[in-house]
Amino acid sequence: MAASIALHAVVFPSFDAVESADPSTLAALQSIRSALEKAEAANPGLTHELVDAILESEQSKGGTDSTEKLLRIAAQDIEDYRIPDKTPELKALSEKSKTLKSILSTIPEQISDRTKFLGIIRDIAAAIKDLLDSVNTVADKNSDLIASQKQPLEAQKKVFVRGSKSFSDTLKRYFKDGRADDVFRSAHRLINQTNMLLRTIRTAALA
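Request: output the structure for the sequence above.
Response:
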């Protein structure tokens, strides 16, 4: 199981378009989907690297970096990360995750305005706390529902906490070195880690 904006918001929707245009490609595309899911799970970030390679010529001509592009679309509602609203706690978690991803996706627009960006940083910190609180509430009040994924969820929570700390450290460096691309990459990783939390809970909730 993998969480990748490049895979689920770019590559797979492109496959859907090809399949709609030519239904005879269904079997072949399903095989490719399965292979990419396995490859991404074994090598997180692989699909992003593929997208980078495909877009390299555009970037060399002054096009937008692929990480920035992916970050801008990160708030999209993607079925692979959609949690069923079986309980109030799951519904609340879904809303908290949407809030965090929506704020993170605005970073490319806001980062050049220091005052607005500082406001965004405060919003992100609050949204991260709200999301973690919501995950803990789900684990506590919906323990039977998510029992099959209890250990993977605990592992993903730790990854998310480390990712949050890494994002915070990157922001501190940004105000010293001005490397916006590092902020984009860190935010992108945090969104993928958020999506892994969601996908882990979705797997349990749909079991």
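Residues 114-141 form the longest helix (28 residues).
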